Structure formats: structure tokens, C-alpha cells
Amino acid sequence: MPSPYRELYRRFGILPHNEELYTLAFTHSSYNGMAGTRHQDYERLEFLGDAVIGAVVSELCYIYHPEMEQGRLSVLRAQFIRSESEAGYCKKLGLDQYIRVGISFTKNMFNKTPLYEDVFESFMGAVFLDQGRDFAYKLIRSVFEDDIKNAAIDGMSNPKSALQEYMQADHKESVTYKTISEEGAGVNKLFTAAVYFEGREIGRGQGHNKKAAETDAARDALAKLARPKE
Fold this sequence. Notes:
This protein has helices at residues 6-12, 19-25, 31-35, 43-64, 70-81, 83-92, 103-107, 113-131, 133-149, 159-170, 210-226; strands spanning 176-183, 190-197, 200-207. The protein is mainly alpha-helical and 230 residues long.
């Protein structure tokens, strides 16, 4: 019986040694209930793939952007390893066609972005184990290289999302916002907001409504994070 991944192997030049790794890479935990199995899913491979992708992306950012200091490199890296970016690469590579999920998951699957992100990472983890470090590095590099080479920091277009993605790239905690003061009245009313991470203020901003003040605070935090350390 021909492999269900034959076209996938051909596309990436893979000569598989252990096809079970690829089956696991495309299997969501919800599939276990339907198949009567336990822990036969992509979660461990996702853990490995996340680390390998992060290392390659970090190196590419370093190589192609010598003009950036550490803070700006971190912001740039976060653009590529955030959920939406990795989900996009999953679909671009056609990995979404092979995903296996349980019926219960299908009924409640409103947002596929986290699933696609996980599968992108788990697939790269499977490649790393099955094909070796050098092959996996070359594959991941081919996915990201041109985009990183031509990238610029785009976080200022959506500062709150960019800040959240940046902070959660290395931490699980979320940022929080607090209105510090309100001055004036009517159209002249001015709000001041601060953004916090792990209880520490990392940015402050102002605006004529709370949302604008929080956005300005996020922009301030990103700018501070992108500055070179003294």
C-alpha cells in the first residue's frame, strides 16, 4: 500500500526512515479518543520542533540584520514564530492536508490557527528526528530565509498584538494594561495607560480614549525593548 505521505516526501526530498514520526506529527490529541489510543499525537514533536525552528530563525535574523541590536532582533524574530506566521507557513507548505483530528474537535474547530501552528512545529520536529539535524536545518532555512532577509519590524502597525507576541515568544505570561489617569472632558479628555509584564511597568502612553492610550503604551514598550542595552 503506497504511503499517504508519498507526495509530501517527494516535495521535500525526504527518504523516510520512520514513517510513524510523520503520522504522529499530523495527529491531534483529539484523535486518540476516536482511535482508542493514548498519547499518540504530535505534542512531544511540537515541543522539539518549536525549539529547532526558534534556533534557525534566530540565526537567520542575526545573519541578515547586522544593523539590529538585541532588542530589535527579538522583536523581528517574534514576527516569524508567532501563531499567525507559523500557521501561514503550514498552509503554504500544504501540511494542513494531512492533519488528523477527532470528531469532537471538528465540531468545535472555529479557529484553526493554533492547530496549524502546532502541526508546522511538529512536522519540523519529525523531520529533525527522522532526517537529522543538517537536513532539518536546511528545510527550515528554505522556508524562512527570503522572508527574513527582506523583513522589517512591522510591529508598529499593530503594537498591542506585536507586544503580546513578542513577550510570549519566550514566556507564557500575558501583558496587562491599566488606566493610570483621566484628564479633561469631552473631546479633550486624555487618558494615560501603562502596560505591565510580570507586575513590572514596561511602557506608558496617552490617547483620547482607553484603547488609544493602551496602543500608545504598547508602542512605547516595543520601542524600549528594541533599544540597544547600555
